[in-house]
């Protein structure tokens, strides 16, 4: 059986309403993309709490998966009217062959080599290097599968800083990948906290899968004590707000690493943390930075 992929050109003001209308009319799936993706005009979208970001792309593309017998011109006209467009936009059709969608999705996620001795491997793959430290992690609801530059920066920093029996706090743990890596690298007391209860659930499950004893908790609960190493891979604005709290959990002589920070935001973060702990740029990748320092 073949399916029909429908691609509709629109703008950021109507894209979401158009996708909703397509779903309401029976589309099996609908997504919004940058119509200029892969060109010099591609526009990255970065948003974080406290920032003002215009949603979507000025030139957007709505892609819908439809049944093969769908009357596309009628559907586009109907949905365009429901989305508030004065006229039906341009669209294109493509026939999609039936596939094993689970297999297709899994094929998008290959093992990631972080370093000579550290790999991130989805559960459906064999470890490429059985002698390496392998973190078994599947894509899921919580952020952090190792593919994002900020996660890689933090993993590499942890690998250089972890020593046997150190204590580690992962502030904003997401999938738990940094906390789990810390435990696999030799840390003895590891705590991960996150504002999202689903992230805590995902982290607990991932720790069990990797056979490590890591504690996870909702950040609504008080985080007690100080740690040898604290890592926070969040975003610039919450990192600024949390500076006193995060630095308060770093013991004297302890190390702190921050990421989730764009290169142009690094000076702001260094200034925000200066009263508590001196930071410097430890590493950069693809426009993102990792800031690190030692508490006096």
């Amino acid at each position: 059986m073949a399916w029909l992929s429908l691609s509709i050109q629109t703008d950021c003001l109507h894209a979401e309403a158009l996708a909703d209308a397509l779903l309401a009319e029976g589309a099996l799936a609908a997504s919004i993309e940058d119509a200029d993706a892969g060109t010099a005009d591609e526009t990255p979208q970065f948003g974080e709490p406290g920032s003002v970001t215009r949603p979507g792309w000025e030139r957007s593309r709505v892609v819908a998966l439809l049944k093969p017998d769908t009357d596309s011109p009628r559907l586009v006209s109907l949905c365009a009217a429901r989305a508030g467009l004065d006229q039906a936009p341009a669209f294109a059709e493509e026939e999609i062959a039936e596939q094993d969608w689970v297999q297709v999705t899994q094929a998008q996620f290959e093992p990631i080599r972080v370093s000579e001795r550290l790999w991130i491997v989805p559960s459906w793959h064999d470890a490429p290097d059985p002698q390496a430290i392998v973190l078994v992690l599947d894509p899921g609801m919580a952020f952090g599968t190792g593919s994002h530059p900020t996660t890689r920066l933090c993993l590499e920093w942890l690998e250089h800083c972890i020593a046997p029996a150190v204590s580690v706090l992962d502030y904003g743990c997401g999938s738990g990948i940094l906390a789990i890596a810390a435990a696999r690298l030799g840390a003895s007391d590891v705590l991960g906290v996150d504002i999202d209860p689903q992230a805590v659930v995902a982290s607990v499950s991932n720790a069990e899968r990797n056979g490590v004893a890591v504690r996870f908790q909702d950040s609504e609960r008080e985080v007690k004590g100080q740690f040898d190493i604290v890592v926070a891979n969040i975003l610039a604005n919450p990192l600024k707000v949390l500076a006193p709290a995060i630095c308060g959990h770093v013991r004297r002589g302890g190390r702190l690493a921050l990421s989730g920070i764009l290169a142009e935001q690094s000076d702001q973060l260094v200034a925000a943390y200066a009263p508590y702990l001196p930071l410097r740029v430890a590493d950069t990748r693809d426009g993102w930075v990792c800031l690190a320092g030692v508490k006096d």
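The chain has a mean pLDDT of 86. The radius of gyration is 22 Å.
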